[in-house]
């Protein structure tokens, strides 16, 4: 049960995200339809629900990827037990079904909790906004029937994610009950042509659809639909090929880490099992990409509206408040994906330290002091965080721009072609959050690592 | 006034050492009032069946584990009351280790592993130390392997790297815990010959924990443990004599 806490947390966050987003979107629509003098309100309400739908798909997708990764991590830690079950006669598929059943339970638990948390958050947000006269006091409905959709989606995707994440169960051989499990090295990973080919194909198709969306965006806001599919496909390709794409980024950052035994070992550690470090990083990459995508899209949206207002002042009168509210809501929702990413990161780093007990014991025996050990874990965490943040910023800027362009390129009175806007507050927040996360993610593993007795170095399997 | 261990030619010493785990009715005594010294420049084997306390004795002597009562010296330094950081630094500078398996840091190449104790100390080997390390590398035939990672080496090669690392900083004492436990008998003999030579030719003090009579026959002195007590302390013996004694010990007990 305890090892599923991170997965339940992730499912809860995804469900809360979806629920809260739909409730807030509903409230925004109520607000807009009641506002006087909104000649374009029909259009704006339609765009809002479109954007809301896009965000929910993204949230559920992120939750699914983080869950699949968490399950893969759990399986890696359980290899010995699974091998023992296989040794005494369990079939691989029955073992995998058992894991998937756990996934279904996790999904249901997360969904229920997410509904409660999400509704509470929405209620708090709107009450606060009403209390501060930021929005008018209207009869906002908290339970539109559509919120059943994200809840159902979370249950199904968590189930599916646990099934996908547990494919490693099939690779566990009974003989592994007798020895330590090994993960693949980078060379092996680079050589897995099938998976890499799939990744590259997905990226190529995704980029094609993104381009189509951008072009179509000049004519209609519906251009965001192929763009969304393209974004999901290309990002899935990146996630699938992460063990191949991320290590080079990690290596670059590792070189910048500095010298000394602790930093050097940290850099080597981060590189040694690309599967594991990619799993640790991918959550954060997704989180930062998402935050950046939202912020860049919102920034670009604001920019376009400003320009459109200059060109057509009558049509866009009174949109200023709407823009402020929308950006505020976006920013508040960003916190969710950052939380999801943090959960994945902390969980994976802890596990990687747990799986290295023997090696840390050896280092202690040879003369690594506890503070050197601490520096090593923090440096490892920093390396993963910095690399993930840089990759996420780059990807997010691109996706955010593509999204804004395909959704708003056709906007009446808009400039047509949009320059991506990377807000300064975003860079500051991301850097600060990354620093905080580096420290937070290394607290548990360092405590574990410094508790390891050097005696375990001489332990015999 | 106490006699310091160094004055009587000892490189490590424990007196009235007791180690117990747990408490109450589940208390297990691993070491029971053990007093013994390791002589400088000698290859000493610590022998005994499983559960005799030989590994625990080594762990406490090497500063890896704390005793329940009794006193422990390495050289003239009493380590009984040292804090974790001082103990770590002492291990780094004055003790070398060779374990049965998992001796090397998997992410570092051979040279990185050999120089790790220096790197941990935040320094590079002096010119004199460098000459010594190069000599060891060449003698043990590791020169062509310096850039290899541990997983690219055979078990015997890995043990040789561990030996170079342990001898490289010229520690007061090298602890070897079942160093041949994972090797085939021919490779095992090579490793044992290396350890014996390090003691006879370079005057390196070595304490080796083993349960293998053949391994113990390479040592100049053999200390036998059973049930947490020292039951015999003898000079160089053949594998046959050692086996004989151990069989007798089992039969009597």
UniProtKB/TrEMBL annotation, chain A:
<feature type="transmembrane region" description="Helical">
    <location>
        <begin position="142"/>
        <end position="164"/>
    </location>
</feature>
<keyword id="KW-0472">Membrane</keyword>
<feature type="transmembrane region" description="Helical">
    <location>
        <begin position="322"/>
        <end position="346"/>
    </location>
</feature>
<feature type="transmembrane region" description="Helical">
    <location>
        <begin position="281"/>
        <end position="302"/>
    </location>
</feature>
<feature type="domain" description="ABC3 transporter permease C-terminal">
    <location>
        <begin position="54"/>
        <end position="173"/>
    </location>
</feature>
<feature type="transmembrane region" description="Helical">
    <location>
        <begin position="225"/>
        <end position="246"/>
    </location>
</feature>
<dbReference type="InterPro" id="IPR038766">
    <property type="entry name" value="Membrane_comp_ABC_pdt"/>
</dbReference>
<feature type="transmembrane region" description="Helical">
    <location>
        <begin position="45"/>
        <end position="76"/>
    </location>
</feature>
<feature type="domain" description="ABC3 transporter permease C-terminal">
    <location>
        <begin position="333"/>
        <end position="454"/>
    </location>
</feature>
<feature type="transmembrane region" description="Helical">
    <location>
        <begin position="422"/>
        <end position="443"/>
    </location>
</feature>
<protein>
    <submittedName>
        <fullName>Putative ABC transport system permease protein</fullName>
    </submittedName>
</protein>
<dbReference type="GO" id="GO:0005886">
    <property type="term" value="C:plasma membrane"/>
</dbReference>
<dbReference type="InterPro" id="IPR003838">
    <property type="entry name" value="ABC3_permease_C"/>
</dbReference>
<feature type="transmembrane region" description="Helical">
    <location>
        <begin position="104"/>
        <end position="130"/>
    </location>
</feature>
<feature type="transmembrane region" description="Helical">
    <location>
        <begin position="199"/>
        <end position="219"/>
    </location>
</feature>
<feature type="transmembrane region" description="Helical">
    <location>
        <begin position="384"/>
        <end position="402"/>
    </location>
</feature>
<keyword id="KW-0812">Transmembrane</keyword>
<keyword id="KW-1003">Cell membrane</keyword>
<keyword id="KW-1133">Transmembrane helix</keyword>
<dbReference type="Pfam" id="PF02687">
    <property type="entry name" value="FtsX"/>
</dbReference>
From TrEMBL, chain B:
<dbReference type="InterPro" id="IPR003439">
    <property type="entry name" value="ABC_transporter-like_ATP-bd"/>
</dbReference>
<keyword id="KW-0813">Transport</keyword>
<dbReference type="InterPro" id="IPR017871">
    <property type="entry name" value="ABC_transporter-like_CS"/>
</dbReference>
<dbReference type="Pfam" id="PF00005">
    <property type="entry name" value="ABC_tran"/>
</dbReference>
<dbReference type="InterPro" id="IPR015854">
    <property type="entry name" value="ABC_transpr_LolD-like"/>
</dbReference>
<keyword id="KW-0547">Nucleotide-binding</keyword>
<dbReference type="InterPro" id="IPR003593">
    <property type="entry name" value="AAA+_ATPase"/>
</dbReference>
<keyword id="KW-0067">ATP-binding</keyword>
<dbReference type="InterPro" id="IPR017911">
    <property type="entry name" value="MacB-like_ATP-bd"/>
</dbReference>
<dbReference type="GO" id="GO:0005886">
    <property type="term" value="C:plasma membrane"/>
</dbReference>
<dbReference type="GO" id="GO:0016887">
    <property type="term" value="F:ATP hydrolysis activity"/>
</dbReference>
<dbReference type="GO" id="GO:0098796">
    <property type="term" value="C:membrane protein complex"/>
</dbReference>
<protein>
    <submittedName>
        <fullName>Putative ABC transport system ATP-binding protein</fullName>
    </submittedName>
</protein>
<feature type="domain" description="ABC transporter">
    <location>
        <begin position="12"/>
        <end position="252"/>
    </location>
</feature>
<dbReference type="GO" id="GO:0005524">
    <property type="term" value="F:ATP binding"/>
</dbReference>
<dbReference type="GO" id="GO:0022857">
    <property type="term" value="F:transmembrane transporter activity"/>
</dbReference>
<dbReference type="InterPro" id="IPR027417">
    <property type="entry name" value="P-loop_NTPase"/>
</dbReference>
């Amino acid at each position: 049960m305890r090892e599923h806490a991170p997965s339940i947390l992730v499912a809860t966050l995804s469900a809360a995200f979806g629920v809260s987003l739909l409730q807030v979107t509903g409230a925004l629509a109520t607000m807009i339809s009641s506002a006087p003098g909104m000649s374009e309100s029909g259009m704006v309400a339609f765009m809002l629900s479109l954007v809301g739908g896009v965000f929910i798909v993204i949230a559920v997708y992120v939750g699914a990827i983080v869950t699949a990764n968490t399950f893969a991590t759990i399986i890696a830690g359980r290899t010995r037990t699974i091998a023992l079950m296989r040794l005494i006669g369990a079939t691989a598929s029955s073992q995998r079904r058992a894991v998937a059943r756990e996934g279904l339970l996790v999904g249901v638990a997360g969904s229920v909790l997410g509904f409660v948390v999400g509704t509470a958050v929405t209620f708090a947000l709107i009450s606060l906004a009403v209390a501060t006269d930021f929005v008018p006091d209207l009869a906002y409905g908290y339970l539109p029937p559509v919120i059943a959709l994200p809840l159902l989606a979370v249950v199904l995707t968590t189930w599916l994610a646990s099934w996908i994440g547990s494919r490693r169960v099939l690779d566990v051989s009974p003989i592994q009950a007798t020895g330590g499990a090994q993960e693949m090295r980078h060379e092996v990973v680079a050589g897995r042509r099938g998976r890499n080919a799939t990744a590259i194909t997905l990226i190529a198709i995704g980029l094609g659809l993104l381009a189509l969306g951008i072009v179509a965006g000049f004519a209609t806001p519906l251009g965001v639909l192929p763009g969304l599919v393209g974004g999901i496909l290309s990002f899935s390709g990146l996630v699938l090929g992460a063990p191949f794409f991320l290590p080079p980024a990690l290596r670059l950052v590792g070189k910048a880490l500095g010298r000394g035994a602790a930093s050097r070992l940290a850099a080597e550690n981060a590189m040694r099992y690309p599967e594991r470090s990619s799993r640790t990083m991918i959550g954060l990459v997704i989180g930062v990409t998402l935050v950046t995508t939202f912020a860049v899209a919102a920034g670009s949206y604001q920019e376009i509206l400003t320009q459109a207002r200059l060109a057509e002042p009558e049509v866009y009168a009174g949109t200023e408040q709407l823009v402020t509210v929308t950006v505020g809501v976006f920013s508040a929702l960003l916190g969710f994906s950052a939380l999801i990413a943090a959960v994945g990161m902390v969980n994976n780093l802890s596990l990687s330290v747990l799986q290295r007990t023997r090696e840390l014991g050896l280092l202690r025996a040879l003369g690594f002091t506890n503070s050197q050990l601490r520096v090593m874990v923090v440096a490892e965490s920093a390396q993963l965080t910095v690399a993930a943040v840089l990759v996420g910023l780059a990807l997010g800027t691109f996706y955010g721009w593509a999204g804004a362009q395909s959704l708003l390129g056709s906007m009446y009175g808009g400039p047509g072609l949009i320059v991506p806007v990377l807000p300064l507050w975003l860079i500051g927040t991301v850097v600060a959050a990354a620093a905080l996360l580096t420290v937070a993610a290394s607290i548990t593993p360092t405590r574990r690592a410094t508790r390891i007795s050097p005696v375990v170095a001489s332990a015999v399997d | 006034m106490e006699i310091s261990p160094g004055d009587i030619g000892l490189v490590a010493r424990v007196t009235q050492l007791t180690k117990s785990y747990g408490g109450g009715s589940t208390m297990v005594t691993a070491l029971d009032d053990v007093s013994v010294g390791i002589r400088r420049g000698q290859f000493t084997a610590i022998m005994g069946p499983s559960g005799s306390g030989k590994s625990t004795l080594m762990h406490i002597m090497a500063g890896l584990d704390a005793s329940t009562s009794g006193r422990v010296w390495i050289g003239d330094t009493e380590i009984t009351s040292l804090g974790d950081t001082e103990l770590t630094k002492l291990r780094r500078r004055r003790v070398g280790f060779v374990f049965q398996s998992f001796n090397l840091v998997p992410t570092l190449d051979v040279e990185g592993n050999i120089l790790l104790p220096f790197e941990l100390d935040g320094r590079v080997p002096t010119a004199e130390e460098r000459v010594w390390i190069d000599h060891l590398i060449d003698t043990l035939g590791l020169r062509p392997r310096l850039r290899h990672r541990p997983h690219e080496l055979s078990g015997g090669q890995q043990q040789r790297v561990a030996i170079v690392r342990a001898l490289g900083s010229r520690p007061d004492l090298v602890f070897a815990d079942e160093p041949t436990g994972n090797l085939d008998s021919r490779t095992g003999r090579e490793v044992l010959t290396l350890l014996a030579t390090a003691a006879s030719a370079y005057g390196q003090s070595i304490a080796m924990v083993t349960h293998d009579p053949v391994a113990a026959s390479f040592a100049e002195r053999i200390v036998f443990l059973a049930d947490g007590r020292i039951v015999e302390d003898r000079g160089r013996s053949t594998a046959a004599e050692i086996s004989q004694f151990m069989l007798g010990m089992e039969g009597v007990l």
